[in-house]
Amino acid sequence: MEAEAYRGYCLESVAAVYDVVLITGEEPSWEVPYIRDCVVVPDPTDQAALSAAGRTLADRYDLAGVFTWTEWYLVPVARLARQLGLPTTAPEVMQACRNKATARALFARHGVPSAVSVSVRTREEAHAAAERIGYPVVLKPAAHAASIGVIRADTPEQLTAAFEFADRAARLGTESTSVLVEEYLDGPEVSVECVTYWGETIVVAVTRKTVSPAPFFEELAHSVDAADPLLDTVAPVARAAIRALGITDGVSHAEMRLVGGRPRLIEVNGRIAGDMIGHLVHLATGIDLPRAAADIACDRAPDLAPTRSSAAVIQLIYPETSGTLTSLRFDGPRPPWLERVHFQHRPGDQLVVPADGGDMFTARIGYLITTGPTAATAEARASTALGRLTFRLASAS
Fold this sequence. Notes:
Layout (H helix, E strand, L loop, with lengths): L1 H14 L5 E4 L12 E4 L6 H14 L13 H10 L7 H8 L1 H10 L7 E4 L2 H11 L3 E5 L9 E3 L2 H15 L8 E5 L5 E9 L2 E12 L7 E7 L5 H15 L4 E10 L2 E8 L7 H9 L3 H9 L13 E7 L5 E8 L7 E6 L6 E2 L8 H4 L2 E7 L2 H13 L1 E7 L2
Parallel strand pairs: 1-2
Antiparallel strand pairs: 3-6, 4-5, 4-6, 7-8, 7-10, 8-9, 9-12, 10-11, 12-16, 13-15, 13-17, 14-16
Helix pairs in contact: 1-10, 2-3, 3-4, 4-5, 6-7
């Protein structure tokens, strides 16, 4: 049910305005109240199967648009939209979003400030690239997501293990199995939530992030404040990155770091952000990103007028070590500012942190969301709520 926990708000928003027919990888469950029909495709990344499902639905209904919020489906869904004669950013542009090496080349060509990056296939190539770039460096799969396989190496000795860590994740990919060795961007991390329609991009929010200590880059918290003064600083670079990639339509999530106060691109995801960030944007500004994505997919101008000015925070809950979750409890009242608490693991589940080969799916216990008039208030409330949470793990050994 994790799809419901992290993307349920998207489907609920779109279904409030449109009749939804779904192509899904498994029989729908929680989605049923929000959809009119569906076709089950065991692997939606299989272009032939996805296209056949799309044609089946096109025979049944007068389709107005198609889009996805799932990273792995971006290219197949863009191809499907083109096959059905529906609005879409070009599939080759979505391929550039999915391949970080291609994106880096486009950023360099168009003068978008980014990180120095080298694509490698072997440990020897990784060592050579790191020597040219200079330590510390970041290694990552060229076509993955959710910080999976991303790791920092500060020395040649660390790089050997770091390459194996990144390469193991990269080999799970189908679009690219290469690894990138990149310059480490030292500074606070943010993301910029953007909406593009007919080539014009509006920046609607900036998300400030808290990430785990080195060597990993697990995202621990996100904060959205409608009045964030950083918006004016990061918006021009986000728009330049979207132009460089060639994105013409849709919602995008541009990640960057502020180095010496100046934004430098990490990557652009051609979809609504994960980790409930789109929901935070709605809580803080009133702007509905899933609705905007659906409108654009149907070639309708999205309504991006803010209707509120406040802040929202999501605190992602992780253990410090791997082990078996033995107890999990949230005590105390649930005031209106505690928007939701969600647990994706239960006592008895085995948790595996990145240091032991895990990722956000195997390590994260859940999340809580708080609101407030400012980010500082929402963050303080998140700390208060986190203090009411207790969990214990039994050592994996």
